[in-house]
Amino acid sequence: MRLADHLAHALDDLRSRDLFRKPATVRGPQGRHVTIEGRAFLNFASNDYLGLAGHAALRAAAAAALRDDGVGTGASRLVSGDRETHRAAERRLARFVGAPAALLFSSGYAANVGVLDALLGADDLVLSDAANHASLIDGCRLARARVLVHPHGDLGAVEALLTAHRASARLCLVVTDAVFSMDGDTAPLAGLAALCEAHGADLYVDEAHALGVLGPGGAGASARAGIAPAVRIGTLGKAFGTAGAFVAGSDALVAFLENRARSFVYSTGPLPALAASASAAADLVAAADDRRDRLHRHAARLRAFLRGRGHDAPDQDGPIVPLVLGDPAAALDAARRLRDLGVFCPAIRPPTVPPGTSRLRLVPTAAHEDADLDQLLDALDTLPTIRRSRPCPDTASS
Ligand SMILES: *Cc1c(COP(=O)(O)O)cnc(C)c1O
Questions:
Q1: Within the chain, where are the H helices?
Q2: Closest by CA position to 144, among listed 158, 114, 124, 162
Q3: Is 55 tagged catalytic?
Q4: Which ligand 1 atom lies nearest to the CA of residue 209?
Q5: Residue 251: burial class (beta carbons within 10 Å; 0-12, 13-18, 19+)
C-alpha cells in the first residue's frame, strides 16, 4: 500500500467512528472568553487555571526578554550557550517547588520523554498508573524499561507489584500524575512515597495539573503531601500561563539530565522569553491564593451541581471536572449543544480517554466570574443526559 491510500483510509475510519479531531481557530489570549469565528464563547476548555496566560506581567516579562535576548536561542544550550534568563528561571522554579535544582524543557511532553528515557534502561522497572499521561507512557516505552501497569490509584496493587518484582530490577521508578489529567482526581502520593521508601524504589511525580493549584503557594501536590519525590515534573503551560516545563530534583539529577536527556541535548533551547515569563509566573502564582480560592470554589460548585443531577462527581480538589457521557457521538452532541449556548468545551474522546468514557472535560478557572458558572450550569441543564438523570423531576406536569 502507498502512503496516500493509507492516509485516506485511516481518515475515513476516524470520521466514521466520530473520532476525527480538528482544533477550533480561536482569537485572543486564553481567559474567560475565546473568540471563534467572530463570536465570543465562555471558555471552559483551557488549563490556564489561574487565568494568567494573558496577564500583563507575563507579557511584559516576555517582551523584555524578546527585546534583550531576541527570539531564538540558535541551538541546544549545550552548543550555543546558556543564558542567565534560563538559569534564573531554573533557580526560581526549583525554589518554587522546594527542590535543590531544576532544568527547563520546551514542553512537558519533551520533559517526560527525555527524562524517563535518560534515567531508565532495559534492566529497570516502572510501576505505572493505568491513567497516566501519554507522555509518561511514551517515555517508558522509549526507555525500553519493563513497565507494569496497575489499576488507577490502587496502593495495594503497587505494594503487591513491589513485593513481587522490585528485587529483580536495577532501578525501580513508581511513576504517576499528581492530578490525573482526564479524571481530575489526585494520586495517593504520601502512600506511594512510603511504599517507595519501604521497597527501595523512587517516586516520579508529574505535577502538570497540580502545580500552581494545590499545596502552599501552589507548590504542588507533593509539597502538600509533605514529600520530596526523586523526580518532579512541572509544566508551565497550565497554571503558569506560559509554555514549557521543568524537572526538579537533586543537583546530580539535573547534571545527569543535561548530559543524557535527548530532548534537552538534541533540541534547541527554549526561547529566553519563555524562561523570563516562567520566572514572572512563579512570582505571580506564589502570591495567587485569591485566584486559587476562586478556582476551587468554582470547581466545588460545578461538582456539587453534577452530583445533584445524579452524576458521579467525587468531592476532589483539583480544577478538572469530567462529565462522562460514553460514546464519542454523545460527547460530540453535548459539546455542540453547549457551543450553541455560547460555551466552549470540546468533547474528549479515545484515545485520550478509554473507549466508552468519552466526556466533556469541564475546566473552570480563576478568570471566571460567578455569572459565568451560572451560564455553564444553565447550559449543562439543557443536555439530555442531565435532564434524564435529574433526581426529582419538577417538570412532571408539562
Ligand atoms: C499537559 C501534560 C503534559 C504535557 O505538557 P506540555 O507542556 O503541554 O507538553 C505532561 N504531563 C501531564 C500530566 C500533562 O497533563
A1: 3-16, 56-69, 77-80, 84-97, 108-119, 134-143, 155-165, 189-199, 221-225, 251-260, 262-265, 272-286, 289-308, 328-340, 370-380, 384-388
A2: 124
A3: no
A4: 15
A5: exposed
Ligand 1 contact, 385 CB (< 6 A): no
Q: Is 181 assigned a catalytic role?
A: yes
Asked if 135 contacts 109 with a C-beta cutoff of 8 angstroms, the reply is yes
Do residues 153 and 187 touch, judged by C-beta distance below 8 A?
yes
pLDDT higher than threshold 70 for residue 392: no
- Ligand 1 atom with the smallest distance to the CA of 180 is 13
Q: Where does the pLDDT of residue 398 fall: very low under 50, low under 70, confident under 90, or very high at 90 and above?
A: very low
Which of these, 120, 238, 253, lies nearest to 175 by C-alpha position? 120
22 among known catalytic residues = no
Residue 237 CA: nearest ligand 1 atom is 7
Q: What is the reported pLDDT for 230?
A: 98
Question: What is the per-residue pLDDT across 202-260, written as a single tens digit (0 to 9) for each?
Answer: 999 999 999 999 999 999 999 999 999 999 999 999 999 999 999 999 999 999 999 99
pLDDT band at 393 (very low <50, low <70, confident <90, very high): very low
Mean pLDDT across 283-288 = 98
C-alpha distances in Å from residue 286, one per residue of 215, 233, 283 = 10, 17, 5
CB distance 133 to ligand 1 below 6 Å: yes
